Write the structure tokens for this entry.
Amino acid sequence: MEFAVEILFFALGLVLLLKGASIFTENASRIAKSVGVSDIVIGLTLVAFTTSLPELAVSMLSAARGVSGIALGNVVGSNIANIGLVLGISALLTKNIPIQRPELKQAYIMIVVSVIAVMFMIDGLTPIKGAILVAGLLFYLYYIAHEKELKENIVEKIIDKQNLPKGMILCIIGGAGVLLGADMLVNSATHMAQGFGISDSVIGLTLIAVGTSLPELATSVTAAVKKLEGIAIGNIIGSNIFNLLMVMGASALVGTITVDSVVLMDSVPVMLLLSVILVLLMKTESNLGRLEGLLLLILYTFFIYLRFFGF
């Protein structure tokens, strides 16, 4: 009976988390479009930030409660899921995601950020390291704002002052839903993990990581179908960068995060490997098609299998 209740709370928390993120993203996007920006910038910044809200809420709450396994496992697992699961499914469903030079350049930045983040993980994440990561995010946003290539294909400005207050109110409501959902998700997942004897890290790397990556999945597939490829690929790259700099950094500011060997020795190399594979695919192919999507999805399925069943 108690287990059934935990499953119910987990499901309710996930629904609140995703619905809140959806409301926040939709209304924040409308507000941002009023100033006019390119698709890839929207994907790299606004959409990446808003779809990373579930990861941010879950990891910060977990860090505050001393559940380091979920706090860090969620970040690493979400980055793996974003490339293997989200981008894999997006490429499979849409047949063709064109790769442009700006996207490739951002993918290189993702690799650099990943390596720096891994170096910080080696002996644990302290508030000082967290502050450095957050500062790195601010520097990245400054770079995005001044990168000439990313200012191309500016969308038309749509100014609707009457709907701005409504949009802001809905953003607040969506944000509240994200926080409440994250609270329920972390509590129920922790209790279920303890009940089954599964480590917090494995739960964070798999179940929670997939759950918090659902907004990226919905956003990237929708964007790709609507031929907004800049948002589709930019969302994944931007979300991974935000997860490492903002989510991991902010979580470390809340409390020191100890790094589980399961995360550092088994899953972090997978995150780096998938990032490198993605860059190689983007560099050698003019687009990500069904074959590339299938490859990414197979690699992710293999990762999940190993987390639960081993070799």
